[in-house]
Amino acid sequence: MKMLSACIAATFAALLAGCSEVPVTGRHALSLVDDKEVTKMSIAAFDDMKAHTRISNDKARNEQLQRVGERIQHAVPYWQMPDADWEFVLFDSPDINAFAMAGGKVGVFMGLFKIVENDDQLASVIGHEIAHVTAKHINENLSQQLAMQTGGLIGGIAMLGTGAGLLGTEAVMSAYGLGAAGAGAAFDRNKEKEADHIGIMYMAKAGYDPEEGVKVLEHLDEEMQSQGASTSSFLSTHPSNPERIQQLRDLMPEALKVRERNSIAAPPPTIIK
Ligand SMILES: [Zn+2]
Fold first, then answer.
1. Percent of the chain that is helix, strand, coil (3-state, to 5)
2. Strand pairing category for 87-91 and 105-109
3. How much distance in Å is there from the Cα of 189 to the middle of ligand 1?
4. Residues with Cβ < 8 Å from 201, sequence gap 6 or more?
5. How far is the CA of 211 from the centre of ligand 1 (A)?
6. I need a surface site. Which of 64, 81, 88, 210 has the fewest CB within 10 A?
7. For residue 235, how far is its CA from the centre of ligand 1 (angstroms)?
8. How many angstroms separate the alpha carbon of residue 209 from the centre of ligand 1?
9. Taking phi first (over 0 means left), then psi (-120 to 50 degrees means alpha), and beta for anything else, what does residue 177 get?
10. Ligand 1 mean position to 3 CA, how many Å?
11. Cα(133) to centroid of ligand 1, in Å?
């Protein structure tokens, strides 16, 4: 019975819900939430975070983040993130963590520099995080939460269009793997692999060396071995595994071609206000 209602719900979902094609991989993503609504909620969550988390005044790291952010944002086609008003913020937290939100809001925690040693590696993390947004993983996570709150997919579909507004800041944060509720895995293994795939093409297009993306996964792996996954939310939401490393190695010839073909020239250094 449970199976049957799940099937009916899935059919309704396919008929009624928004369906969009994920860039690069071409997967069809199902969404019960409106993109504009997701952007609005995400910006509110980001503002909340800026108000409650100390922002780093490390000049060199801030300059590095703005420099890399400037190049990566130009590698993301406009149509993949039409609502983006890009902002890159460095939080003064020892956690190994980074995230990107709908609306082009990117947060990096100082602790990330334990596993990131150059611009290329930082670009690979930011590219991966942006890919979680452009691949609609956030919309999917929010859709699931909405369905849970409204009693299943059909309930969620009934709220289509307006429903996303029912979700509070905590639900939004947890869709990104942030906040107290988000310490568990926000993205499953397939979503991680999809974000790696799209992310490595962003970094390559921005002119960074995609080989450095593999090194970040290796550093993550070493960090997990030494301190255990439970000590950092990033390590638990983005676990490294041989499958992810292998996928990046398989994509390397294509990524190197993308870098050669599309490489965006480095803009003049960004002036930090
Ligand atoms: Zn991820």
1. 65, 10, 30
2. parallel
3. 9
4. 24, 127, 251, 254, 255, 258
5. 18
6. 64
7. 10
8. 19
9. left
10. 30
11. 10
Q: Letter for the amino acid at 187?
A: F
Give the three-class secondary structure for 225. helix
| Tens digit of each residue's pLDDT (9 = 90 or more) over 69-124 | 999 999 999 999 999 999 999 999 998 899 999 999 999 999 999 999 999 999 99
Q: Which of 186, 148, 165 is nearest to 9 (CA)?
A: 148
Rounded to the nearest 10 degrees, the angle between the axes of helix 189-205 and helix 119-134 is 120
Q: How far is the CA of 15 from the centre of ligand 1 (A)?
A: 29
Q: Is the pTM of this model over 0.70?
A: yes
Q: Distance from the CA of 201 to the center of ligand 1, in angstroms?
A: 15
Cα(234) to centroid(ligand 1), Å: 8
**pLDDT tens, position by position, 147-194:** 777 665 555 555 555 555 667 777 788 888 887 655 555 788 889 999
Q: Under a CB-based contact definition with an 8 Å cutoff, are residues 181 and 123 in contact?
A: no
Domain boundaries, the chain: 32-262
* 61, 193, 195, 198 from 23: Cα distances, Å: 30, 14, 10, 7
